[in-house]
Amino acid sequence: MPPKKVLVVEDEANARAGLAELITSWGYRTEAAADGAAGFDMAQRWSPDIVVSDLMMPRMDGLQLLDRLSELPQSFLAVILTAHGAIDSAVTAMRMGAFDYLQKPVDPAKLKTILQNASEQIDSAPASAEGGRPATGAATTDDMDHLGPLVGRSQAMQSVFRTIERIAPTNVSVLITGESGTGKELAARALHQFSGRKNKPFVAVNCAAIPETLIESEIFGHERGAFTGAQERRAGCFELAEDGTLLLDEIGEMPAATQAKLLRVLEDRKLRRLGAREETPVNVRVIAATNKDPQQAVASGELRGDLYYRLNVFHIQMPALRDHAEDIPLIAAAMLTDMNQRHGTSVPGITPQLLARLQSYPWPGNARELRNTMERAVILAGNERLALHHLPEGFGEAGHIPPPHQAAPAASHPPISASIAVPTSQPGMSAPDVVEVAVGTTVDEAEKQLILKTLVATRNNKTRAAEILGISSKTLQNKLKEYNSDAGR
């Protein structure tokens, strides 16, 4: 491959000359321009592969230059240089399509890594139809019903697809939000699949599932003897994901001290293992996910504001399944194909009556609950088409599970009790259990009954119970501690 062409746009003469000389010493072909207007003229004539531009410049600043460069037919990757305190403008540049940003004064090692990543992305991207230059998108088209592991033709899912297409080839951090079971990890895997890192590791870690005392070791690694029981050196998730993608699921459950350390790694691209004296460079794209409202989490102190702004360069909101029920036939068909392969079954399809029932159900557990329901039905059906009798008794019928997102209908006479179903989807259990809650029961007591009944139904599987209840494992543990404390009074 011929050396990449790098255009340096910087209004300060010494900085411009120093950057151009440094980048040339790394083997790149380099040109320089004194401001945004001159940079735009040079880009038109020279067609650089990478543009390294300052933000604050006379005549045309970095954001205006990015906007003008986007009008040119040739593609390029932009790296923005920003002074401390102008991070908001750098984030705006990333949202406009910049590949990455770097704070001034420039750290040569960080700049070299960014340019290497940009070059690798250019080399791995498919050639476009015009002139063979690399395309920066994910090479998909509108109205596709699949994007990697994601499925859907609805407007909500098509919006998710377009966002993933746009940002997957970049190196930006992404925050994915949505209710439990909406497919946040699948969206993260799609971002990885359509990026230049697709042939490198994808590592997913659930921050809520790791004990607080071990989370730093799991994420950042440790040296031998760093703590009691550390008998050997161990790489953390960052090092395991080197050159690839790291998904930090349930980021709001991460302890505050670990969040501070994570922020440092994101900014410096270096980490220090527990017990280590030296820092280790890392090259990892970080994607975070949470089922909480991140702004509320920041307001409550669960999530650091500076970490939120560093992660939330781009935001993907995964829609609840009830909000794109028109996609259920497609999703169910994809799940059926997968389950036939995994279970060795030959279920030929799904009856219209069952599809109608699936589409009318509110799915409080979203796609995860749909998968559990489908899996149970496939195992029962064997070689038959999936039909209503393969569902748990009463599934989806009126009054079976009141949708949590809707108000209960008015009644002329108040009921004596309310029934809340616990959809366990456990092998060997034919139908959901029901919690009877008498009128006059407090909300706290009703919640306690539902949690304890769900644990019984899942045979004390706390992870599964938390999934059914739509809460994190940590929240469930805290509730159980509270109940034990109350019992001891």
From TrEMBL:
> SUPFAM superfamilies, per this entry?
CheY-like (SSF52172), Homeodomain-like (SSF46689), P-loop containing nucleoside triphosphate hydrolases (SSF52540)
Residues annotated with 4-aspartylphosphate modification: 54
Sorted keywords for this record are: ATP-binding, Nucleotide-binding, Phosphoprotein, Transcription, Transcription regulation
One Pfam match, given by its short name, reads Sigma54_activat
Presence of the UniProt keyword Repeat in the record: no
Stretch list, region Disordered: 122-142
Q: Report domain Sigma-54 factor interaction positions.
A: 150-379
InterPro entries (alphabetical): AAA+_ATPase, AAA_lid_NorR, CheY-like_superfamily, Homeodomain-like_sf, HTH_Fis, P-loop_NTPase, Sig_transdc_resp-reg_receiver, Sigma_54_int
Q: Where is the Response regulatory domain?
A: 5-119
Among its keywords, does the record have Signal? no
Protein name (record) = Sigma-54-dependent transcriptional regulator
Classification lineage: Bacteria, Pseudomonadati, Acidobacteriota, Terriglobia, Terriglobales
